[in-house]
What we know:
By secondary structure, the chain is of the alpha+beta class. The chain is built from 16 helices and 38 strands. A hairpin with a 3-residue loop joins strand 26 and strand 27 (611-620). The chain is elongated and about 105 Å long.
Amino acid sequence: xxxxxxxxxxxxxxxxxxxxxxxxxxxxxxxxxxxxxxxxxxxxxxxxxxxxxxxxxxxxxxxxxxxxxxxxxxxxxxxxxxxxxxxxxxxxxxxxxxxxxxxxxxxxxxxxxxxxxxxxxxxxxxxxxxxxxxxxxxxxxxxxxxxxxxxxxxxxxxxxxxxxxxxxxxxxxxxxxxxxxxxxxxxxxxxxxxxxxxxxxxxxxxxxxxxxxxxxxxxxxxxxxxxxxxxxxxxxxxxxxxxxxxxxxxxxxxxxxxxxxxxxxxxxxxxxxxxxxxxxxxxxxxxxxxxxxxxxxxxxxxxxxxxxxxxxxxxxxxxxxxxxxxxxxxxxxxxxxxxxxxxxxxxxxxxxxxxxxxxxxxxxxxxxxxxxxxxxxxxxxxxxxxxxxxxxxxxxxxxxxxxxxxxxxxxxxxxxxxxxxxxxxxxxxxxxxxxxxxxxxxxxxxxxxxxxxxxxxxxxxxxxxxxxxxxxxxxxxxxxxxxxxxxxxxxxxxxxxxxxxxxxxxxxxxxxxxxxxxxxxxxxxxxxxxxxxxxxxxxxxxxxxxxxxxxxxxxxxxxxxxxxxxxxxxxxxxxxxxxxxxxxxxxxxxxxxxxxxxxxxxxxxxxxxxxxxxxxxxxxxxxxxxxxxxxxxxxxxxxxxxxxxxxxxxxxxxxxxxxxxxxxxxxxxxxxxxxxxxxxxxxxxxxxxxxxxxxxxxxxxxxxxxxxxxxxxxxxxxxxxxxxxxxxxxxxxxxxxxxxxxxxxxxxxxxxxxxxxxxxxxxxxxxx
Length: 768
């Protein structure tokens, strides 16, 4: 085309502006931006002004081509002294590197990501050939694996560039995962498989966790990182606070996790940055911490959908190596930044606990089926590995770490921070749910094969308990069993529910027990069940005509009544976030309640003797719900097994349990422990945590008693005062306008106890 010159790099031909004119334009642009950034009274500005004025006098673009280019060359000579002015010894340094954040899936599906990876890596390799000083970071092993499978020739060139020091494989994890919803064992697997890939493929031992776009960071992460040999962490997302909030106070600091583990953190500000003069100066000036450091990380290039840096980025970087008035730009790998800062001395600023993200609270709930698939897959793989290892040791069963590696990597893939959080298009969730089904099937087959190798053929039922404590529970007996007896010949309590017979089995820790067919034994019934009542020897729950708990009496509590208002109370709200639909829950949602006052139909399903069950059926706005509420013999736990045909748009559904407990904080389970958060809104940061993550339970406790809401697949919760509200469903319309429509199944529970928290068994009840 007119005005373009062909430039050949390797086997690729590019069209660029006439090189000398292009170079002059970049020189002038650099000086214009530097002039705007400098103090208007400085001598330097006057010098730049004279140079730019001379530029307008020297260059004549209307001359014939060769004469015009001669004026361009003359002008570049005139501007060279200005561009050659160097900084002093106290100038801040930007440790810069090329970067292209590629979401593994988001507004595109996985197959498109493969193509994005191919295009992006080919572009960056071409730039490396043209700019020998250029270095580029790609952090996710799964993307490298995609590249290897789809474009092996490009992958081979990437490996060569790694060897030459231009391509930087660093990031720590298999993908850039969500860290609030992902289970602790899964986060460890992210590091195990991520670090192993980088070591085996590139000979690199990763020490940096690179998560520029993840939506909050668990307080358990420092412990997990340290245990996996990763001591540095960088992100930029924590600075997002587009609806206000408490500004994060640090850029470079020590992060202390819930167990006291420490990691070193640097927060950059943008993973898709430009690298012109105004951007680099602005990046230094926008730091929130003024003391203790003089260097920053500076990733630059187009991202989210790939692309990476262009020639403009790299030409500006060359001019900014040591340009007076601007921070020095040093093209290097991020680990060199951390090493330099460590050698200088790490600032002593310390942040303790979770790095709570003051946006994107809706991702704890969006795409409920995917979150359920994650929880079920994590437990299925744990179960399969436990019995696989036991069967290998005890019976020579064929099992190794490789048996379930593919299944584990499927779970790790789905934990990417735009898949598991629920912020992608519909096709992504079709693929994610299909992958979870494969993982669960593969894990169940492995567990069943291992368990089968541990039992001998007999007309008996062997029950396995993969939890690390003795467990008592109901198990459906096979056809032909009217009752059952255990290994000692003692009759086992049984109960018929519907057309099935259930036995109460006591199974040892990480072990198994066998039941043989026998006659049904009589069992004394301590349970009571009416359409308004469930009662056992410990608890008595009374229900109103909406299926809400109006009274909950702990018979061992001197204070008796625990309910402070209707419990199992469903609350629906309009949910129309002002910025990001699937990502956010805005603080004003509480001001837009939806009427759910219609009555329920309540019937008795079972009156005991092992479990009493009520069935509650009701309409929730445009949706229908059926719930089986159960109370087992000798249990302190009310279970709510729930099925909802969800037909809402832009609605949020919660279930509330107000209790007569007074405390100023709630306990929320996270990976390998729990975190305390305020249950009041006294300060802005307290109020801003109006929706927070939990795993299997959230609890309110006093000195010698407490109450917890447990769940089998929900992650969002809020606690204000004495009320725990578990978030159940959210019906966003973007980017998936059919998100969560149709049948949803889940179970939550209310658990109460007497005595200190350490003896409460709430952790075990959550697992069960």
